[in-house]
Amino acid sequence: MAPQPELDHGEDAPLHAEQATGRGRVTGRRVQRTVNFDQEVLDRARAAAAHLATHAPEAGVRSLADIVNPAVAERVAELEERFNSGQPFEPVFRLPVGRPREWPGT
């Protein structure tokens, strides 16, 4: 079996075909990423995180990440169920920059 290429997952690293998808990603650690939110959603989430961290420790929310991570996990699980027979999608280390110009079939 050929050795696997060492993968560079940095945001500025060039994307090579062998790096686009694959297995072996480390789980359980937090990584920082830039994501665009609708301003109203972000404002509400920040307010909730700040209030709950200060006034309701029983909510288990100490940061914005404590709201975002479970929400994203729930949505991804819904998408896996609906579009991938309940199985995780093939891992992708980096997404292409920008949006697709058109959806297929439109």
UniProtKB/TrEMBL annotation:
Q: Where is this region: Disordered?
A: 1-26
Give the compositionally biased regions (Basic and acidic residues). Answer: 1-15
What name does UniProt use for this protein? Centromere-binding protein ParB C-terminal domain-containing protein
